[in-house]
Amino acid sequence: MQIANLSGRLVIVDGDRALDVESASAGRFSSDPQAAYARWDEFVSWGRQQDVSAGKVFRTTELGPAVPRPSQVFAIGLNYASHAGESGFEVPKDPVVFTKFVSSFTGPDGDVMLSGETVDWEAELVVVIGRGGRDIPEAEAWNCIAGLSVGQDLSDRSVQFWGHPPQFSLGKSLAGFAPIGPAVVTLDEVESIADRNDLGVRCSVTRSDGSMETLQDGRTRDMIFSIPALVARLSSIVELLPGDVIFTGTPAGVGHGRTPRVYLRPGETLTTEIEAIGVITQRFVAPR
């Protein structure tokens, strides 16, 4: 099952059709896309019985962030050895955790205003918590996950490296810098297509002259801290809440790690795809 945010309303999607949850459930479930996670098991049980073909046709530009207002956003830095190396850092012994403030969340297909000359891309698998808690064992972690989504950890490197040591969160939280979607895909649907522990992560750019380049091409099996390990480590310190989001890190290929460095420019389009989950598209426009 895939759930999404269509113009601010919770929907179940299949292809280009969306079933409005509040209407289809006769008010049993709210239209609020964030509210489903508080009743996740009940909602999934109901949702899997619905006929989405009866829903309306929609365009991806109508979709908002798949998880619009999580209580907590965890972003994991340097979670691929290849990315740590290109960034000039040692492979971390413990998860490097920052946040992307919720005001940066945006839909999966839209325009993003560049904040300056050093905006970079980071394709990421996003984990959405379904059942929260503290001290969740690794062996139980997948059972606590509602589903997976596609995210971009867009980053203004100038803001990120304002000081010494650098601070990550502000430079990664400008308006539109956290696109997520197109939907949250439940684990059973992911597993019908691929291995949930080994998903392809790709990112490409179409430049203003029409040329295309693959920027990142990695696999989630190469994470330093796996998804179960992240859930266990985070929940050993904080309580994970239903609807929380984890950006799990990016593989090698970011612009800041290149020689010479390369950043996003107005007129370029970024396409991010994760195997068995979906595609998001961002078009970049000049700052006002």
TrEMBL record:
Alphabetized UniProt keyword annotations: Hydrolase, Metal-binding
Pfam families hit by this protein: FAA_hydrolase (PF01557)
Highest rank taxon of the organism: Bacteria
Signal peptide positions (record): none
One of the record's GO molecular function terms: hydrolase activity
Gene3D superfamilies xref list: Fumarylacetoacetase-like, C-terminal domain (3.90.850.10)
Fumarylacetoacetase-like C-terminal domain ranges (all copies): 73-284
Transmembrane region(s): none
Family: Belongs to the FAH family.
Name of the protein in its database record: Fumarylacetoacetate hydrolase family protein
